[in-house]
Write a structure and sequence with these properties.
Layout (H helix, E strand, L loop, with lengths): L58 E2 L19 H19 L3 H42 L2 E3 L7 H6 L15 E3 H5 L6 H29 L8 H8 L10 H16 L7 H16 L3 H4 L2 H20 L2 H12 L5 H21 L23 H31 L6 H16 L3 H4 L2 H9 L13 E2 L21 E2 L1 H24 L9 H25 L19 H17 L3 H11 L5 H18 L4 H9 L16 H4 L12 E2 L3 E2 H10 L4 E5 L7 E6 H14 L8 E3 L15 E2 L10 E3 L4 H11 L3 E6 L2 E7 H11 L11
Helix pairs in contact: 1-2, 2-7, 2-8, 2-10, 2-12, 5-7, 5-14, 6-22, 7-8, 8-10, 10-11, 10-12, 11-12, 11-20, 13-17, 13-18, 13-19, 13-21, 13-22, 14-17, 16-18, 17-18, 18-19, 19-20, 19-21, 20-21
Amino acid sequence: VEMWVMDNGGFCDDNYQSGSSDDELVDISEVTVDFSEDVPPLDRDYSAGKTPNNSPKLMDLLDDTVPGIGTYEDFNTIDWVREKSKDRDRHREIANKSKQSTVALLFSISDAFSGWLLMLLIGLMSGALAGGIDIAAHWMTDLKEGVCLNGFWFNHEHCCWASNETTFQERDKCPQWKSWAELMVGVSEGPGLYVVNYFMYVCWALLFAFLAVILVRAFAPYACGSGIPEIKTILSGFIIRGYLGKWTLIIKTITLVLAVSSGLSLGKEGPLVHVACCCANILCHFFTKYRRNEAKKREVLSAASAVGVSVAFGAPIGGVLFSLEEVSYYFPLKTLWRSFFAALVAAFTLRSINPFGNSRLVLFYVEFHTPWHLLELIPFVLLGIFGGLWGAFFIRANIAWCRLRKNTSLGHYPVLEVVVVTLLTALLAFPIEYTKMSSSELISELFNDCGLLDSSKLCDYSGNSGGTSGSVNATAANGLGARLAGPGLYTAMWQLALALVLKMVFTVVTFGMKVPSGLFIPSMAVGAIAGRLLGVCMEQLAIRHHERDIFRGWCSPGADCITPGLYAMVGAAACLGGVTRMTVSLVVIMFELTGGLEYIVPLMAAAMTSKWVADALGRESIYEAHIRLNGYPFLEAKEEFRHKTLATDVMRPRRGDPPVSVLTESGMTVEEVERLIADTTYSGFPVVISQQSPRLVGFVLRRDLVISLENARRHQEGVVSMSPILFTECDPPMSPSAPPAVKLRSILDLSPFTVTVHTAMEIVVDIFRKLGLRQCLVIQNGRLLGIITKKDILKHMAQMANRDPDSILFN
């Protein structure tokens, strides 16, 4: 159904009540949206509609506030201009009243403080949930391999902390921790141990993934995916009821733990932004000024996005910059301060919970601080190029896979898809050490430099020279011995190369399935593997050819060697930047995440190179690509409109179409207006002087019109089908025997945005982006000629880009 997407109605009072809450559960793909339930019941007695002499009078909605007027239907766009105007009016009213009494002054102070209180609550709630998710996911991930005899609620690391029998070489082995093979068949070595553990690993993975997809499908369809594309759309002004509701929050929190624990190639960082926004939306219901104003609510959701990244990475400053750079549509200075405060509270809450047991906010903290060499910028740039290529490839491959899922029968079996992908992932991941461990543990190991106590294969270095330069005794600054690769390192290299291919393939098919799935950690894992491989190659090259001029001084005795962990950090940043196209926020998140403040320049070089390469191959980030795939009405501010079209080329009605449906300011009856509403699906109607003189007077919303007419029929005496509808300021002369008129001037927007037929579409698109408009009327010499809606602009832009204009699904 094609609808006018319009909502710029005149507004006189903001004391309305929303007809439906964001807690309603709606499944876009399977449910037909019924807007009739969105109109609230009007069972209160507002006005008897009589004068003192009991003669009927005109029903004026200025005298009485009708519930539902000024609210929005599902899958519609808010009117930013009207919402901001309402907030200014409310502020003026509070300021005026505060001068009259002490009570009003106290109310004014509490109103000003309520925003900071809301930020405090969002930070506390999001931090607590994130800490719980981290602890639960770590425990359930280890549950696939075994159980702790001292208490099943201990994960592997915590179980062995108290053991006195743990050695440095085998620190992961202690008598208190038993693998499933040891518990079930009493086997502690041999092929039986491997087979039973393999079988239990796959079974637990399938169980976790099956529970996750069943819970999402049964209770909260909106809990699947990352959530960031939808949150970007919501922050731009779109309404998706239920997407940030309580059921979505509960199910997403539970299934996120299950999905991460299943071993699928996904992360929890993106979904944590969704979780934080759900917390913010629910808490907004307790604060009147946010509950009743959609624009103010979106300022809170912008701050909640910063909170989500803050608790996901332990990066409060990076979270604020992420919200500003990546997701927010409207980000005033006040929101910046509040985002910073909320991210601070959330990070403090997470630190108090201490989910990682290392007294730090992050899992990837690096201990090395060795300086990097200027010529190393060349391999850092190469990693940036790899990250850009990976980002462009991933976006195209993932969108192609999601489109295949959407347009074929594959999309009809989401449970089967999740189970099959989980089965393949578990079967292929278990034999390889670096895919068997969780992505977070893998990144942590790849980021770290080798120390004296490291028993990892990545740290298997030998002093035996097999190089062409003879015996080399390259001593690093930390006093380690020779850094020539040993057999364990060679084994780790080919295992990492295999893990890189598997991670790439599984990340492409996993992102977009009907389970909560983040993209940050899998992208970072791909980059960290590639970076570590390149770092080890550079290290060995420098050691074996240290006498060459280019490597002289790099790894000579007493000098600092190349640090492979730094290359893993740079590679992770490059790949994440290639997929998301983040720059400033990415670099800040990375140095907050790792504590590697000395490495800002390599991170910046890789992030910018990655963005340039990825943008050369495709302008869209993964989130914008998914927004376009789902047909959300999102006007991307980064996309330039370069075509020389005019407003007359885009407006409706087009040539050959019936004339635009309008209301006249007088002369129409209740029956005629109700028939027009029944015969059309438009969301609003222009009001003109008359059919013969179509001079524009204003614009009225369909929703406001329906509610007002229903209210008039119920509560105004004498209103019948032949009662006239008036949008005029002055009452026209009426016959004493005529039925009473219904005066609706109060719901009329007297200052709708207008352009002329010769206005360039480049300017029209800019107006829509910067003012957040839903519709714009097209006039010539004051005469109404047509209308341009946000959907019309999106269709026109798609047509100009040789895309299907009907891909814009929602109004």
